[in-house]
C-alpha cells in the first residue's frame, strides 16, 4: 500500500502554490484571500484554518518559493559541471524564475510585507553568499577564477544587478532570460575567469 503525503500538507502546498501564482501575476496587495479561495474552490475559512492571516500566508509563500530554489541548488548534477557552467546555470535559473514575477510583486513585498521581505532577503543572500560564493572560492582554489577577485564584492554587485532586473519590467518583457544572463552575469564572469 502506497502512503501519500498527508491531505493537510497537500492542501497547504496547493494553497501556497496557488497564492504564489496569483501574487506573481497580480502583485500581493491586489490579491485577496477571497481570490485565493475562489481560485482553489475552497472556503476562505479553510485558508484561515491553515494560515492565521495574509501576512503569514505571504511569509509561507516566500519560504515555499525558496524551498524550490534550494532544491535546484542541491541537484547533484549541478556539482558535476565546470565552475563557469555551474555559475551560469544557477544565475540563468534565477533570472528565468525572477522574470516570471511582475514588478508589482516586489514593490508590494518591500512596501507592505516587511517580515516576508526580510525572509526573502535572507533566503536570497543565503543563495548568493553561501552557494555562489563557495563556487567562486572553489574556482579561485582550482585556478579557474582570478585569485585577486574580491568574492564578497562580486556577490554584492550581482545582487544589485538582479535587483535592477526585477525592478525593470521592460527588460524582462523585451529580452529573453538568456540575453539578460549574457549581459549581466555573463559579462562579469568573463572578466573574472582565468585564461
UniProtKB/TrEMBL annotation:
Domain HTH tetR-type residue range list: 9-69
Superkingdom per UniProt: Bacteria
Annotated keywords: DNA-binding
Transmembrane domains' residue ranges: none
Gene3D superfamilies in alphabetical order: Tetracycline Repressor, domain 2
Name assigned to this protein: TetR/AcrR family transcriptional regulator
Entry-linked SUPFAM superfamilies: Homeodomain-like
Keyword DNA damage: no
